[in-house]
Amino acid sequence: MTQSLLVRGLVRRLEEAHYTSLSTPFKAASVEFDFTAALTGTGGRSLDLILIVDTATGDHGDRDAASVRQRIHALSRALDVTQSRYLLTVILAGASLSSLVDALSPICRVLSIEDAALEPDGTPSSAAAREALDDQIRLLLPLDLQQDAAAEPSVLADPIAELLAALPDGLDQDLLSGLAAASVRGEAAVTRALGKRVGEVLDLKAGA
Amino acid sequence: MTEAMLHALDITNFRSIRGSVHAPLDAKVVLVHGENGAGKTSLLSSIELALTGRVISLERADPAYADQLLLRGAKNGRIALQTSGLAGANTFETLLSPGGVASQNVLPPGPASFFSERCYLPQALLGQLLQIYQDSDSSPDSPLARFVTELLGLDRLDAIETGLLPVADLRNFRKSSTAYAPLESEKQRLDRLIADHQQARSVAERALTAALTEINAAWKILGQSDPIVEADLPTLSEHTALATDDVAAAQLVDQRRSLDSLRRGLAGEAGGTTEAGLAGAHRVAADALSQWTAEHGTAFEALSARVAKLLPTLSIPPSDTRAWHDAAMAQIAAAGREATALTRQAEADAARKIALAAELEVERKNLVTIDTEIALISDNAGSLAELLAEISAHIDSDICPVCDRNFAEKQDGALIDHVHAKVTRLSGSAERLLALGRNRSTQQEQIDRLVREQTTLSARELEPEAAADLARRAADLDAAAAELARLAAPIATRIGLLADETAARRALNEHQALSQSRAATAETLSAMAVAIELSPPDPLKPVADMIGELEAAIDQKLAVVRGRDQARRTIRDSLAQANMQLGRRRDADAALARDRATQRLHDAALKRAGRIRSDGQTIKGAVEAVRAQIISRAFNDRLNRLWRDLFIRLAPTEPFVPAFQIPSDVTHKLKPKLVTRHRAGGAGGTPGAMLSAGNLNTAALTLFVALHMTVTPQLPWLILDDPVQSMDDVHIAHFASLLRTLAKEHGRQVIVAVHDRQLFEYLRLELSPAYANDSLLTLELIRNATRDTELLPKRFQHKTETALRFAA
What string of H, E and C letters represents the secondary structure of B314-338? Predict the structure, then answer.
């Protein structure tokens, strides 16, 4: 393995996110392409094709912006030619010129990561370092919804329903439904609904 | 989760969609493309209308928006939506007519508001989002606060809380319904009425008790032992005890009156005189009278005869001696004086007659003398004197102005002196003539008077026999007067004797009469005693004592009878009073029953209102608690964390990340503060200051998505209406990736409308089906030649990717 620590860390992180490394070089439209690392997604991300360019220490002309541009343009063209639906994402690992990013942006998604604090085996050296690394490639990672199944019973998504659930039993149901219906139309409507219900119960026949 | 999915949509004449279109929606991703005005927003909002029965973003803009939903000019419209996987019905239909909207079936309230607030991001809201981030401040009325409030549904909670403010204060609560004040014042009136009725009732009750007390007191007098209670009152007036004893009383009064008259008849008996004594006294008086007659009888008879002769008009008989004596004395004295006066008159007249004749002779002679004197004086002496006096003015010599002769010839002084003397002489004669005239008439009057006197005298001149009779009668009268004077003492004695005898006789007669009636009286009294149930009186008792005892007994009985009468009157009066008070109490009870019933109704109504108020307070309190819950839940670190994830995904190079500063005081209105934080830690400024316009838009979008994602979705749908305005290519690429993540990794059915053709093509590529069951639909909205809306659907299926060949 001739990959740099940063590239190793990236590949490791992406593989954790269910990407699979492709063996390089590979051919597209009969053209051979060699990249420091290439990965493709699975499942919903199966059309994601990720290329990692090591602009600091890489081979294959990775350190030469023009060469990088050429290769990516070529691959893009090759994919177009084969009517591929691959979505190309290029990760520029290491410092890079913004002109390179600008040049690549029209044809693929470009992510740029200069540095990361990594252990020798490629794992982040701290939680903060991991967060910083994730931030750079967030787009490629699944959403972390921090789902807590117990926290949020879905039936309570409606504040009014939640309010009704929070209320003790035995309240005046006509008042409740009137207030709930009027709440959409604002406080004056609520006050009117209150007044209406008060008027109803004040009717001497109401108790009969 | 059972994958709920939108399947197909049929729209006819809704908003800007003209005619009918059918839109299949059964794909993981639906891309809608159309030029501006082609009906993208109409299509998306029709989904909301079909699902929830309303379009909240339009409702906010115009409460009467429902009238505008039908395509202008169309007669009717329809929206029909097919879904799958929902718990309830999966067919939603809304009919549109010029009169409004009629929804056949809508989602339950919970899912409906979830859809409106967290699934569907209409352009209008996105516009608000942009503004929100530019104008953010921390006031509770800031667009941010409003947006988040509305997004979280807190606006409804706020509306409930603010709308329920009147329940906090009773005065304000009263004003909440116009029915309150009248009801309350009516209740106060009833309270007063009831107090009045109670007062009236207790007054009547007291008066009734007083009347009963009086009745019972009188009842005892009537000898009744059972006390009268209220229940006895109605029949009391017929009670036999109240029958009158007028008859008994009248009898007693009659007997009492008889006794009175008996007692009067008894008067005089008390003298203790006896009949024998009285008879003796009468005999003594009669004897005294006889003795007197023997002594003076003859003289008295002679005198009485003489008086009778002299005074034939005296009607009093001599037996009534006192009156006779007094009248005779007076009349004889008067007649004597008259006779004497007449006699003296006759004597005086005779003397006068002679003197009168002489006087008359003298006067007549004087009259002749006066007449003679008058005759000597010329009648015209006066006028001649005047003429001569006038002529004298024309005499200035001795020549006579009448005859022109010279007076000097007479040798008798001057003519003027002569005329003056003549005038003086003539004037004196005239005066004397006047005086003589007066004298003559005086003389004549004197003569006439004397002649009249002579005539008077002649008229009353008595005949000689008459004069003698008169003198004789006068003498007789004098004699009779003397005789009366002489017999004055015996006559006085006779008067005394006569009076004694008369008194004695009368006393005797009366005594005899009384003695006869006593026996009858005693018998009467005895009968009377039996009649009034007393033992008969001792006949030996004096009648007066018997009467006294009977009177006392009768008086006592009368007193009892009258007392009973009085008691009956008292009972009747009190009974009337009691009946009146009973009536009043009955009236008061009826009024009380009536008004209390009404009052209970009022009380119940007010109590119900009070319960509504307390319910309102409970609800208001719950609103605060629920809001606090929602805010702390929605704004917890999970939201911020998710937002950060999403935001960084779209703007990986942006060092500042937006976040909500969670209000520490969450009990009152939401005051969210929007801040940025540096990725490496540390606070930044507000997003408006720290983020570019594109990143602000990104922040807004990601906030919406974050809010959608923070909760377990009730509906796994994300409908975005042209969300990428003013985004550059990099952001759009990232956004597309995000959509892909949401659709393909998080199971959201994503519907996105865009108007930009290139973007549409790009998204179609980016969102291409990635695996076997993945699917993509594109819907193109266009207007055909007749301006009707047409929809061209195109479905993309998964194809296995074969572009890459690997060397090994």
Answer: CCCCCCCHHHHHHHHHHHHHHHHHH
Please give the residue of chain B at the shortest CA–CA distance from A43: B771
C-alpha Rg value of chain B to the nearest Å: 79
HEC string of B331-368? Answer: HHHHHHHHHHHHHHHHHHHHHHHHHHHHHHHHHHHHHH
Task: Report which secondary-structure segment, H or E, holds B401.
Answer: none
Q: What average pLDDT does this structure show over A77-106?
A: 87
Helices (H), ranges, B97-167: 109-114, 123-134, 143-151, 154-163
Q: Rounded to a whole number, what is the distance in angstroms from the first to the last CA of chain A?
A: 90
Q: Is A198 within 8 Å of chain B by CB?
A: yes
> Is the complex ipTM more than 0.90?
no
Which 3-state string (H, E, C) describes B47-113? HHHHHHCCCHHHHHHCCCHHHHCECCCCCCEEEEEEEECCCCCCEEEEEEECCEEEECCCCCHHHHH
Find the residue in A nearest to B655 (Cα). A135
Q: Where is pLDDT greater, at A123 or B674? A: A123
* pLDDT for the residue A150: 41
What is the pTM for the complete model shown?
A: 0.51
- Cross-strand partners of A21: A39
Q: What pLDDT is attached to residue B636?
A: 64
pLDDT digits (tens, 9 = 90+) for A153-169: 443 457 788 888 888 88
Q: Do B157 and A183 touch (CB under 8 A)?
A: yes
Is the pLDDT reported for residue B244 higher than 80? no
B806:A152 CB<8 A = no
B507 closest CA partner among B289, B232, B806, B282:
B282
* Distance (Å, whole) CA B602 – CA B443: 129
Residue A92's H or E segment, with its range, is: strand A87-93
Mutate to test the interface with A, among B160, B649, B650, B654 (most CBs of A within 10 A): B160
Alpha-carbon gap, residue B95 to B73, rounded angstroms: 16
pLDDT category at B671 given cuts 50, 70, 90 is low
